[in-house]
Please model this.
Amino acid sequence: MNTLIAYSTRYGTSEKVAHLLAERLPGDVHIQNVVEQPDVEWETVDHVIVGSSIRMGKIQDEMTAWLHRNETQLLKRPLGLYLCAGTPTAAERQRELEDAYREVLRAHAYFVEVVGNGYDFERMGFLDKAIVRMMAKQTVSSLNLDEAMLDELVEAAQASLRTRSENP
Model:
């Protein structure tokens, strides 16, 4: 099975999650930043995981466009969806998931969840640092991933791959 992990990231958290997932998944795994490389050779892809970060309540415009452009292809394959977001409440996380991923994709996906957050002050500009300091009360770089949620995503992906290989 060939898995594509397609992501967009502002400061690297979604990319870090993509690499962690790739280490844990079986088969051939290709990691692709859709901002830098938006084209996909769909004939080589059996399974897709899509991840993005939230900034100011939204995913990157390039990811939104990529999802829209590739929706038909995504709906033909097992699909997992994750976000990296620092929202504190379950209601806020749910709202961000709903805003990030259209209902048709969420309904099709075997996994739709926030897997953690991170703040890389080395990659942030002055304004973003000020916003993070004020809103998230963070003053240094951090990576706060929910290992249980990452494990759940990997287990769901493996189950989806098993089901697909048993019922081609």
In short: Strands lie at 2-8, 28-33, 47-53, 79-84, 111-114, 116-119, 142-145. The chain has a mean pLDDT of 86.
